[in-house]
Design a protein that fits this description.
about 35% helix; alpha/beta; Alpha/beta knot
Length: about 140
């Protein structure tokens, strides 16, 4: 299974990109993970599980992220999980096709910050699933 992180607008700060790239690199120890900014997914394809980050979505703990990934990994019908962060004006039409809406914070986060948190939480979830000491809870 492949995990793809998408941001529907550009990443403003190079420091954010550097940190996101570091978490992606770490995640590659555990799974096929890639990410891209300034890209939009237009249609959900068969075999994909689509998760959008939405302030009105379901709150999910780090352990919840891990459980979500495990459930997807254990499902032979799921070949790819997409996590999507919207732009400054929200998400594109793809949000209507989402399998799950999650809220990564009770506070509204700037797009770049949400992008960084997404990368870190995917890495943390994969670390939890693989018994790494990164997560101390």
């Amino acid at each position: 299974m492949k995990i793809t992180l998408l941001k529907e607008s550009k990443v403003a700060a190079s420091e954010i990109s550097t940190l996101c790239n570091e978490y992606t690199k770490r995640s590659l120890r555990y799974a096929q993970v890639d990410s891209a900014a300034d890209q939009k997914l237009t249609n959900k394809k068969s075999g994909t599980y689509l998760v959008v980050l939405d302030e009105r979505g379901k709150p999910v703990s780090s352990e919840g992220w891990a459980a979500l990934l495990k459930k997807s990994m254990d499902n032979p019908a799921v070949k790819r999980v997409y996590f999507i962060v919207g732009g400054a004006h929200g998400l594109s039409e793809i949000e209507k096709q989402a399998d799950l809406r999650i809220n990564i914070s009770p506070m509204v986060l700037a797009g770049d910050l949400a992008w960084l948190v997404l990368h870190e939480q995917v890495y943390r979830a994969l670390s939890i699933l693989n018994g790494s000491k990164y997560h101390h809870a």
